[in-house]
Structure formats: C-alpha cells, structure tokens
Specification:
Low-confidence stretches: 1-27, 372-379
Radius of gyration: 26 Å
Distance between the termini: 68 Å
Number of helices: 25
Helix content: over 70%
Number of strands: 0
Mean pLDDT: 82
Structural class: mainly alpha
C-alpha cells in the first residue's frame, strides 16, 4: 500500500471538471420529517416530552417490563444519534466526490419518494379491503366474551396494519438516509487509511441498524400497551391478556406488505442498472467498474441505496416484528393452557430479548475501532476478520443476556426448571445463527475453496462458469437445511421437556421452545444488519473513488471493503432465510390455532393424502417458482432497456470514451426508476392474491362437498409447501449469486489473468446472471414466505 496514502500526501486531484446532474425534481424528504424540521425547537421539545410522557404513563399502567423496553429503545436511539453525529462529522473529501455523492443522494431520495408513494396507495386500498372483510366475518368465543365487536376488531386490525406499513417505510428511509450520506465519507476516509474507512462504514450501518431494530421493538410495545390500556385488558368482562397478541397480527402484515414491494422495486432497480452497466461498460467497452464514462454508473450507485439499504431496512424490520408477534401469540397460548398465574412474562419475553439485542449490538459496533498505528494498516487487515471479531463479542454477550432474561421472565413455580430449558432453546438459536453465518461465508467468500473453484471454471469459458455457479448454489442448500432441521427438532424437544403441562398433563412447551430458538437466532439482529448495511455503503464508496479518479491505492482499499461487503450481504441473506424458516413455522402454528378458534373444533393436522390438500401444496410450490421467474424476468426486461440506452449513448456520443463528451446519467436513472415501479406490481400482486383466492375457492368447494374446513386445510398445505420450497429456492439464489460476484472480485485481485482477461469476462457473465438471483428474487422470497404466513393468519376467517 502506498506510504503516501497512509500519510495523507496524495497526488493532485483530477483537474478535468466533473459535473453530475441533479436527479431531484422536488423535495424528497418525507412530509413528516419536513414538518418536524420546520417546527420551533422549543415546541418540538415540548411535544416530544409530552409524547414520551404519555408513552411511559401507558407503559407503566401496563407492565414494568414495558417501561424497561421503552427505556432501552430510547437509549438506543440516543446511541444512534451519537453515531450519526460521529459519521457526519467526517469530511466529505474533494468537490468531485461531493458532486457524485449529491447526484446519488438525489436519485435515491427521488426514487424512494415515488416508490413509497405507490406502495402507500396500494396499502390504503388493501386496508379498506381488510376493514370490509373484518366487518362481515365471524367472531371467536374469546372476542364475544370480552365484548370485542366486529367494528372494534376491524378498526384495530386496520390501524395495526397501517402502523406497521408506516413504520416499515420509515425503517427503509432511515436505511437509505444514512447510506447516501456515509458513502462519500467512507471514500474520503479511504484516502487516509483502510481501518478508518471500515470504521466509518460500520458505524453508519450501526446507526441504521439500531434505529430499525429499535423501531420494530418500540412499535410492537406501544401497540401492545395502547391496546392493553384502552381495552381494559384483564379487567372483569374484558379481554384476557393471553388473547391480546392476536390483535397485533395486522402490524406484522403491514410491515411484510411494505417490505415485499420495497424489496421487489429496489431489487429490480439496482440489478437492472448493474447488469446494464456491466454488460456494456466492462464487457463491450472494456472500461473499469464505476467508470465515469459509463452512462449507467449513477443509476447503479443509486440502486445500491434503494435496493440494498432501504429495502433491507424494511426487510429486517418486518422480520423482527413478525418474530416478536408470533412468539407473543404462542407464549400467551401456552400460558393459558398451562394456567400460569402471571402470563405476562411469556408474552413480553420477545420484547425483552430484542431490547438486550440493542445493547449488546451497540457494544459489538463500538468494539470496531480505528488504529493509531499506520504500519498495521499498511498491511491491509482483512475486513471480514475485524467484523467477525465484533460479531463474536456480540454472540458472547447474547448468550449471557439470554440466560438472564429467561430466568427473569420465564421462571414459574409450576415448573421451576423450565427457564433453563428455554435458555438452552435460545442457545440453540444463537448457535444456529452463528453456523449460518459461517456456512454462508464458506460458500461466498473467495478465501474459501468453493468460490476459488468457481473462479477457476471461468478460465474455460462462460458456459462452465454458469454450470459451476449453479451447482455451487444447489449444493449450498444442504448444510443450512440440516442445521434448520436439527434446530427445530432440538428446540421443540427442549420445550416439550420443560415440565410445563396443560390440564390433561400433556406437555405444551414444544412450540414455545421453537419460538425461543427463533428469538435466539435474532438476538444479534442489530449487529447482523450493521454488517449488511456495511456492504452497499462500501460499494458506493468504491464507485465514488473510481468516478472521481482517485489514486489506485485508494481504490485498492475500497475494493477490499467491497469484497467484504459482498460476503456480509450474502451472510445477512442467509441469516434472514434461517430466521424466516423458523418464524414461518411459528406463524403456521398460530394460523392453525386461529382456525380452531373460529371453527370451534380442533385443527391440529393437515392430511396431504387428501387430493385437494395435496393440490394446495403443489400450488404453494408453484407460487415460489412463478414469483421467482417474474422477479428475474423483470430485471431482465429492465436491463435490456438500460443496455440499449448505454449502447446508444456510446454510438451517438463517441467523445464519451475520450472524456470529451458527458454521458446522460439522468436518462438511465429515469429508465430504471419507471420500469422498476411498473415491474414490481405483478409479482407483488401474485403473492397477495394467491392465498386468498385459493382459500376462498376451496372453501366454496368444501361447502358443496360437505367439508367445511377444506379451504383452511388447502391454505395450510399451500403455506407449508411454499415455505419449504421458498427456503430452498432462496438459499440457492442468494448463495449462487454471492459466489458469482466474489469469483469475479477474486479474479479482479490479479488471479487467473486479472482484469480484462477472458476469465474475467466469463466471471462478469456469471456475476450478471447472479445479480437478479441475489438481490431481487432471493431477498424477496424470504419476505414472501413470512408475508404468506401473516396474510393467511389475518384472513383465516375468510377460509371457513
């Protein structure tokens, strides 16, 4: 590494003027944030004081545990504000860097506003449909005994749905807001040292992660406390606290709805721009990645923010919200069956676990420090090793806090040792998360054999690269499935042997044990999201360095960070798939309990030997493949438009290659923005309409054939098969895409001929094929799995 770079004595900047377009036509900051920024500071302070006072009053009227959760969330928000100030306090570098960053920010915020405007309209339409369905549906015996009428039930569900949608959108905005401001600061820091650039990227990702997880936890807590306070829960003649979590399902559905469309739209945007930029720029024209002469480069960099940051923030928000709500439902159900005197500990346990997640993840984030020894940086430390050390710190703290939480919240006189069994369930989940991270790194990091073999296959051509990548992706499904299977069985067994029994002396803790394992897996979610956000921020930083034509030594730093970012993104996707599998299992169990409540008959098994039920399973598997096909096809169609536009500009403006003419970046941004908004509708509508249509169709068929539960059984089979197929498909898509990407990065380090060689061109083809796999279809699938579970839970009465 150049000594000049480490000491900060850099060569003169590129004298050629760089002018980048303003992509923003209107103010893109959400309305609520613009209103807050215009308010008088004192008035804002008073309103915040009153708001927090009301929240704490309602929380104190509900449970001391809720007050604890509120306090931890607020502390995490304060920590995130510190991280924001620290990151924004870093310099932005020379003017050319700032111009590029401004163009990226304008494009990202403009697309975000348009995309979420479209999503909000669809959410309002769906909310009205939910309200109508709930107004005409039957009620459960619990609702009848508590006096909860149809209007109240409909209003609560719609309010929860809209609140979940709004919070999910805000989580996405937070993820994008920090990334478009941190990218240029990472680029500037890379001019001084690799470790400083790493620290800036990690702390920027940490801000987003703490806010997203904190919002998910405090959102569920506020909703729970508000319903508890307003409905007079546990007072004579009112709802029991064990039934309260079912009212929160709408919140999870709203979060899933927004996350699915955010992931689809953002994924189509980012990968269409990336494919178009690579195929024409790198393969046909032979220019480097993120070269300023490429007309699609700004669209590509914008896509990193709207696809990998905004969409991932909404995605993880939805994952945590769905897991918390499903675990609360199962905890309440188990406590009711076991006649536990104070069931609040089992219901509120998920909120406590994720509150501790905020604390331990903050410690992990702050454990990654800069170094004052330039000699250490000169040898270029492995960013993955540094991030792994922070993750190890977080894991150790998670084990300690999980054990303390189970003893605090889950101790009961009926089974004094049950808390220890559940602590072991949490340990199973934590170890599952750690093993998932390791497996994903093994299959996607070019330090390991699978990716190096994939890179070697590029030396014999494009076709062998594709064959090797597909086989790697297929193979990579085996270990994760084995790990998930062992985790579910082991956690269920530990819960079942906890000593908790119902009135008939039957063990009842099995499902809750699986729920606790899911909580354990997500007990380090904030740090995992930090690693995920690190990836696109580092990728953007590399693009800014290349476009502003900084010294090669600076680009070397950002290339290493970018390669590590590819691995962390793949790791997070593997982590998300594992948690989606466990969460979907929990939601499936909650769905069967909900059907039993409405049908007034036990509903504990689904017999796939019944032809109609088997057909439902086939339809569920088909849904996964059709959804994936439409998502990938959307990227392909949009990428074709980008390729044609980039080729047109190179032909009509030959001076672009000699820096005598400026590319029209705005045109490519406009193409991918409009196309991604158009293309996200069809696969998203398929996901929402399919389970409802199938359930209603077979309900009608069951009515005429004398099988009143046929619709519910068919939907259960559809959900079951879709979950299994979706997990396998998502693992294949995410891992193969990440491996193709890092095989290309490995060759770009100088191996197997290096940049511009035939093997490099073959690797670019593989990376292009993998782009829609790992950043569009794959991430959307694990959101789809959980959304199918929540929509069937919300719509359960429609199938009866």
């Amino acid at each position: 590494m150049d000594d000049a770079m480490e000491t900060g004595n850099l060569a003169p900047y590129q004298e050629r003027p760089r002018i980048f377009p303003n992509m923003r036509s209107k103010p893109s900051t959400p309305l609520i944030f613009r209103i807050l920024m215009r308010m008088n500071v004192r008035l804002l302070f008073v309103l915040l004081f009153l708001g927090f006072g009301a929240i704490f009053y309602i929380g104190a009227s509900t449970s001391p545990t809720i007050v604890f959760v509120f306090s931890i969330c607020i502390i995490s928000f304060v920590i995130s504000m510190y991280l924001t100030n620290w990151v924004l306090g870093k310099d932005e570098g020379p003017p050319e860097m700032v111009q590029i960053s401004d163009a990226i920010r304008d494009g990202a915020e403009g697309f975000f506003k348009t995309q979420y405007g479209s999503i909000s309209k669809m959410a309002l339409l769906l909310a009205m449909m939910i309200f109508g369905i709930y107004m005409f549906r039957s009620t459960t015996p619990q609702q009848e005994s508590s006096g909860l009428g149809r209007l109240t039930s409909a209003s609560i569900t719609v309010f929860s749905f809209l609140l979940g949608a709004v919070c999910s959108g805000m989580a996405g905005y937070v993820g994008m807001w920090v990334s478009v401001r941190a990218n240029v600061r990472v680029s500037s820091a890379a001019r001084r040292s690799a470790r400083e650039a790493l620290q800036v990227a990690v702390r920027a990702g940490g801000f987003s992660a703490l806010v997203v997880v904190g919002m998910a936890v405090i959102g569920v807590a506020i909703l729970y406390a508000t319903f508890y306070f307003c409905l007079g829960v546990d007072s004579p003649g009112s709802m029991k606290v064990t039934d309260l979590p079912l009212l929160l399902v709408g919140y999870g559905f709203g979060a899933s709805f927004v996350a699915l469309f955010a992931q689809l739209g953002g994924g189509i945007y980012t990968k269409a721009a990336d494919v178009g930029a690579d195929l024409v720029g790198k393969v046909e024209q032979g220019i480097p990645e993120d070269d300023p002469r490429n007309p699609a480069v700004i669209a590509d960099l914008v896509g990193d923010n709207v696809g990998d940051c905004a969409a991932r923030g909404a995605d993880l928000f939805e994952s945590i919200a769905a897991e918390i709500i499903s675990a609360m439902i199962l905890g309440g159900t188990m406590a009711q069956r076991c006649k536990i005197e104070d069931p609040s500990g089992f219901i509120l346990f998920p909120l406590v676990i994720h509150s501790f997640d905020l604390i331990i993840s903050s410690v992990g984030i702050f454990s990654i420090r800069g170094t004052r020894d330039p000699g250490v940086i000169g040898v270029m430390e492995d960013p993955m090793m540094i991030l792994q050390k922070g993750y190890s710190v977080t894991i150790i703290l998670a084990v300690v806090t999980f054990g303390l939480s189970t003893r605090w919240m889950l101790y009961t006189e009926q089974a004094p040792s049950a808390w220890l069994n559940f602590a072991l369930c949490g340990l199973v989940g934590i170890m599952t998360a750690y093993i998932f991270v390791w497996i994903t790194q093994y299959y996607t990091d070019y330090k390991h054999e699978p990716v190096r073999k994939l890179a070697l296959s590029s030396t014999t051509g494009h076709g062998t690269n594709i064959i090797a990548g597909i086989s790697l992706g297929l193979e990579s499904t085996a270990l994760p499935v084995l790990v998930i299977s062992v985790s579910i069985v082991l956690a269920f067994w530990l819960g079942q042997t906890s000593g908790l029994v119902d009135e008939a002396e039957n063990p009842t803790g099995g499902l809750f044990g699986t729920a606790v394992a899911t909580m354990g897996m997500l007990s380090t979610a904030a740090y995992v999201l930090t690693m995920d956000m690190f990836g696109p921020i580092a990728d953007n930083a590399g693009g800014i360095v290349e476009m502003s034509q900084q010294p090669e030594s600076v680009r070397e730093i950002t290339d290493v960070l970018d390669a590590a970012g590819n691995t962390t993104k793949a790791t997070t996707k593997g982590f998300a798939i594992g948690s989606a599998a466990l969460a979907s299992f929990l939601l499936f169990s909650a769905y069967m309990d909900e059907v039993a409540s409405f049908a007034h008959t036990p509903f504990t098994q689904v017999d796939i030997a019944i032809p109609e039920v088997f057909v439902g399973g086939l339809l569920g598997s088909m849904l996964i493949f059709l959804f994936s096909a439409w998502a990938c096809a959307a990227v392909g169609r949009t990428a074709q438009e980008v390729v044609n536009e980039v080729r047109r500009q190179f032909i009509e403006r030959p001076g672009i290659m000699d820096f005598k003419d400026k590319p029209d970046y705005g045109r490519c941004v406009a193409i991918v923005a409009s196309a991604s908004l158009r293309e996200m509708i069809k696969p998203g509508a398929l996901a929402i309409i399919s389970p409802v249509f199938v359930g209603v169709l077979f309900r009608i068929l069951g009515y005429y054939t004398g099988h009143p539960l046929l619709g519910a059984k068919v939907v259960a089979a559809m959900l079951m098969f879709a979950t299994v197929s979706g997990i396998l498909m998502a693992l294949f898509l995410n891992t193969s895409g990440g491996a193709w990407d890092n095989a290309k990065k490995y060759i770009e380090t100088g191996a197997l001929g290096g940049k511009g060689s035939d093997s490099h061109k073959a690797a670019i083809t593989g990376d292009t094929v993998g782009d829609p796999f790992k950043d569009t279809a794959g991430p959307s699938l694990h959101v789809l799995i959980k959304m199918l579970a929540t929509i069937t839970l919300v719509m359960a009465p429609v199938f009866l």
